[in-house]
């Protein structure tokens, strides 16, 4: 029976594995590959999936291969799996920066490839994935990749030229928000709140604001105006953020993330 091979079971690989199982995939339909024995035992114990050492063994007989290794490991991985890949097996890469062209170049001629940029909220089935097909991927291949990523959140199909920008926005995005959360918690402590109180205030404010943003479908600018009373506390705070060019800092930071994504792919 055919299976899905999961090559790389670190943070994102395990996120996808756990999410697929939560969505109803059976453990026997997935074979993981990890080079560390302790990690293989850990995953077998936690999820009941078979984990092997060699990526080539994992892809043998697979109809779908998920590549979730660091971009820097892709060049060594492709020649290792290429000879064992089944005819028409779909290769779905979640690796930042690595282009479908680079993947196609290292795999047997005609291999269907789909490039995905996921993010870690997939751990709670609220991920955001942007998906781009390579030249040999059919509509069915693309739908298969969308189906996989929709098991752990939302998915959109975008032209591949947007993937580096997507990586800067939604791929790295959770880290920016956690950074803001940390800053706000520390600021609450600075103002004299106990850390646990500051933490729950900030976490629930972040969660409630995200829910309001999505459910109200209102522009963030309007939602911000609703909080900002004339000559009030919010206006006093926002003035400092404007004076410190926080929006410009985000633009520069995300430009750096976009450029790093392109660099990881070597383009
Ligand atoms: N973390 C995130 O938020 C996101 C990550 N991604 C992408 O996902 C990919 C993985 O990232 P992440 O999970 O964070 O990284 P991790 O380092 O946590 O996981 C990568 C895993 O791949 C394993 N690995 C590397 N080479 C091989 C190989 N030849 N065979 C089997 N396993 C191998 C590594 O093993 P070892 O530990 O032994 O090196 C490690 O367990 C990256 O390409 C990243 O760009 C995309 C979007 C978001
Ligand atoms: O930091 C990284 O390179 C990966 C890609 C997007 C999020 N994490």
TrEMBL record:
Catalyzed reactions: L-proline + NADP(+) = (S)-1-pyrroline-5-carboxylate + NADPH + 2 H(+); L-proline + NAD(+) = (S)-1-pyrroline-5-carboxylate + NADH + 2 H(+)
Name of the protein in its database record: Pyrroline-5-carboxylate reductase
Membership in a protein family: Belongs to the pyrroline-5-carboxylate reductase family.
Entry-linked InterPro entries: 6-PGluconate_DH-like_C_sf (IPR008927), NAD(P)-bd_dom_sf (IPR036291), P5C_Rdtase_cat_N (IPR028939), P5CR-like_CS (IPR053790), P5CR_dimer (IPR029036), Pyrroline-COOH_reductase (IPR000304)
SUPFAM superfamilies (UniProt xref): 6-phosphogluconate dehydrogenase C-terminal domain-like, NAD(P)-binding Rossmann-fold domains
Top-level taxon: Bacteria
Assigned keywords, A-Z: Amino-acid biosynthesis, Cytoplasm, NADP, Oxidoreductase, Proline biosynthesis
Main function: Catalyzes the reduction of 1-pyrroline-5-carboxylate (PCA) to L-proline.
Subcellular location: Cytoplasm
Pathway field: Amino-acid biosynthesis; L-proline biosynthesis; L-proline from L-glutamate 5-semialdehyde: step 1/1
Encoding gene, per UniProt annotation: proC
UniProt domain Pyrroline-5-carboxylate reductase catalytic N-terminal: residue ranges: 5-97
Pfam families linked to this entry: F420_oxidored, P5CR_dimer
The protein's Enzyme Commission number: 1.5.1.2
GO biological process, one term: L-proline biosynthetic process
Originating species: Propioniciclava sinopodophylli
GO cellular component, one term: cytoplasm
An annotated Gene Ontology molecular function: pyrroline-5-carboxylate reductase activity
Residue ranges constituting the Pyrroline-5-carboxylate reductase dimerisation domain according to the UniProt record: 160-264
Keyword Cell inner membrane: no
């Amino acid at each position: 029976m055919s299976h899905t091979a999961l090559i790389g079971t670190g943070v994102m690989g395990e996120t996808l594995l756990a999410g697929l199982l939560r969505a109803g995939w059976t453990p026997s339909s997935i074979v993981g590959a990890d080079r560390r024995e302790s990690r293989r035992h850990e995953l077998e114990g936690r999820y009941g999936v078979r984990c092997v050492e060699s990526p080539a063994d994992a892809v043998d007989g697979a109809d779908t291969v998920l590549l979730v290794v660091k971009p820097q490991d892709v060049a060594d991985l492709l020649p290792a799996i290429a000879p064992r890949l089944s005819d028409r097996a779909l290769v779905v890469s979640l690796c930042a920066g690595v282009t479908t062209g680079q993947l196609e170049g290292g795999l047997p001629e005609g291999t269907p490839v789909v490039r995905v940029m996921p993010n870690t909220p997939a751990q709670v089935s609220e991920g955001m994935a942007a998906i781009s097909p390579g030249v040999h991927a059919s509509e069915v291949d693309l739908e298969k990749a969308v189906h996989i990523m929709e098991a752990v959140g939302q998915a959109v199909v975008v032209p591949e030229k947007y993937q580096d920008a997507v990586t800067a926005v939604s791929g790295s995005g959770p880290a920016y928000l956690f950074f803001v959360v940390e800053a706000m918690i520390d600021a609450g402590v600075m103002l004299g709140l106990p850390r646990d109180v500051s933490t729950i205030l900030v976490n629930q404010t972040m969660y409630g604001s995200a829910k309001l943003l999505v459910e109200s479908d209102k522009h963030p600018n309007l939602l911000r105006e609703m909080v900002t009373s004339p000559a009030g506390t919010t206006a006093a705070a926002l003035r400092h953020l404007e004076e410190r060019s926080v929006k410009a800092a985000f633009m520069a930071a995300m430009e750096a993330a976009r450029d790093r994504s392109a660099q990881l792919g070597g383009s």
